[in-house]
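This entry is listed as follows:

___
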Amino acid sequence: MRVCSKSVCDAGTERWSYIDLIAAGLVYAMFGVAAQAAAGAECKPNHFRPPYFIKTMGPCAFDPETLSFQGEPAQQAKCLMRGMDQSRNLSPPMESLPPALAERVGNDTRLPSREGLSTFLSKQDLEWDFAAYLWIPVSRANNDDANAPLARYFVIHDTSGPNYGRRSFPGDVDDDTKINNLADFKCSDGWGKAHVVINRSGAMLLSHELSVPWRETKFEQAANFAGALKGLFLHVELIQPRRAAAGHSRRNDAQSPSPAFTSAQYDRLALVYVIGSVRAGHWLIPAFHAALDADIRNGHDDPLNFNADSLANSLEGVVKKLQGPEEMQAADR
């Protein structure tokens, strides 16, 4: 269903006014919370977690004063978009970014319009979770302090489960309902791990609206920052089952399916990246959970076997679909 105010519909184009969108989003949020309360589980940890302090600002040298990592945005992305190597140590920084990312991160080059993105999302049946909030900024740091910067980082995770131990993955890993059931990630208490969860068929669960400040990594939660990083990062989880690598115990989870993530996941991840960037007013800086928590004990290795070129290709595909006829002609010249 599309909602359109007569005062803002013109030339056959359906556009929502800011007030319409806020109202629609709030109404949906109320129903969404009620639905989650009926069907979801409580996810908030039920045991006390003592505060902890980190000894370093991480391999990418975070600056608590500027609330950013070292270097220009592209340099930051090359440092932050790296996972674990075969020895389970953090890989070296990327030598270069795929062009689709290199030309965008940190600036507002070729950001799609909210109107065009809203129409596209409506055609994808994503009005209520995503289009309804396009005119609302993303979260701000320091738990949404009005004087703090808007979210800058787009953190990519994988669920690292379910873990099959020494068993083989199911033959239909991309369609298996036990693996891809998004209901397993619903939390009636609002304590979902990430802002968005994407399963292997491309279906999405919005656990936290992108304007909601949230922390998922150990780095963000360190007592050193006194909550200042809450809202600086947006988080997306990709469903990825794991199994033990050859010669390891069944508790090991160093092996992912092949491919590690599906084309549908990369496409949806790129779309969420576009949505977050449009709402932030600049292209967000992608980061891996592994790089953020690399210097912290029991840090994570996700997203395991992620392909940056696949994300870049999906991003180009999404942006091309969002271009109007005039923009497409200019790009072909």
